[in-house]
Design brief:
The protein has 189 residues and is of the alpha+beta class. Helix content is 28%, strand content 18%. It contains six helices and eight strands; from the N terminus they run αβααββαβββαββα. It has a four-stranded antiparallel beta sheet with strand order 4-5-8-7. It has a two-stranded antiparallel sheet with strand order 1-6. A hairpin with a 5-residue loop joins strand 2 and strand 3. The protein starts with 7 loop residues before the first helix and ends with a helix.
Length: 189
Amino acid sequence: MAKPAVSAAAASFMKPVPIKDILPINVGLSPAQEATMISILGSPSTPLTTACQNTKASAKVKDLQETRRMSDVFRLTGIRPALDSVQKVLKDVFAENPGLEAVLSTEGMLCVRRRKPTSGAVSKKLSNHSWGTAVDFKIAGFNAPGNTKLNVPKFIAAMVPHFNKQGWLSGIAFNDSMHFEVADETIKQ
């Protein structure tokens, strides 16, 4: 069976943009540290694997957890303050990028698990998705962009400054283009 055709609008948001054209990024922002996350949002139940185990979320995360529609295409499950922030970002991004709202999708937000290895052994560290404070994006009909080397898809380039303004770190910093997470500095506020 043939795959349905991907819309021209969706394809246009996947066009590569050189990372050098969107620099600087993540100014004054650093990855949320596991110790910070545990001290503020609690520790999930262990043991954990690299698969989502959302029933093991911390009590604080369970209290703050919500599922919210972000567009006609997708919903996110995360903690309320992070969802509020994502909604602000997306409102601005959609206003500046006509057509993106109809094709932007996600790989998810809350996913209680260990970090997935990009190389080598499985990490012993918790993923920031474990607290519902990280989100991965993609364009419907396309794979989520991981390590895109010297370029990022146009939709990611459009989103980075808005997420940075709200205190979110872009995963471009660690070769995970689809990923945005609330920065350590923002969590501490």
